[in-house]
Amino acid sequence: MLIDMNVKEFLEKTASNSPVPGGGSVAALSAGVAAALAEMVANLTVGKKGYEDAQEEMKEIVIKGANYRNEFVKDIDKDSDAFNEVMAAFKLPKETDEEKEARKNAIQAGSKNATLVPLLVAKNAFEMMEIIEKVVEKGNKNAVTDGAVAAMMARTAVLSALYNVKINLGSIKDESFVEEVTKQMEELEAKVGEVESRILSKVKF
């Protein structure tokens, strides 16, 4: 499993001629890093003098951040597994009409799954920006730039994941599915940059 690799091994695997891990797994990793940074800022605020009013909120963010991080870690492998599922479908036999139909259906099912995995990463990374904004606003000022990096990593995760959504949509024949996913994707694209800019505008040195 990819998540059991150390950083060096993961990067070497990414750099190799293997198609996985690819951009989708890296998008999930970026989101996980953003979550970890948000947790860190919150943890550096808990128990610190001068931040008494933010204690309960920061404690909640520590928990929420950990939950996000754990999900994104799982998504690193989910994305690669979804790609492998599509590749396996393409290798199915296609000698008879029945085999051709089964292969076509498997490719379509796999492509949908390979679309939904990064879409969920994008949604969750965008949603997570709410707690990132709170740590930038109310967290330990000595770690405010870590919160800023979290915001940038989260935005990157959203846009990176959505690129993986786009490339998989091109293979899907279900028009209603494509229409619905495209709508969700465009909404995220329209909002994420604005949210990142708002968060970064609150970073005071």
Polypeptide structure, described:
- By secondary structure, the protein is mainly α.
- It has one domain: Formiminotetrahydrofolate cyclodeaminase monomer, up-and-down helical bundle (Four Helix Bundle (Hemerythrin (Met), subunit A), Up-down Bundle), CATH 1.20.120.680.
- Helix content is 78%, strand content 0%.
- It has helices at residues 7-15, 23-43, 55-90, 97-138, 144-169, 175-200.
- Helix 2 (23-43) runs antiparallel to helix 3, helix 4 runs parallel beside helix 6 and helix 5 (144-169) runs antiparallel to helix 6.
- The mean pLDDT is 96.
Which short descriptors sum up this protein?
about 200 residues; Four Helix Bundle (Hemerythrin (Met), subunit A)
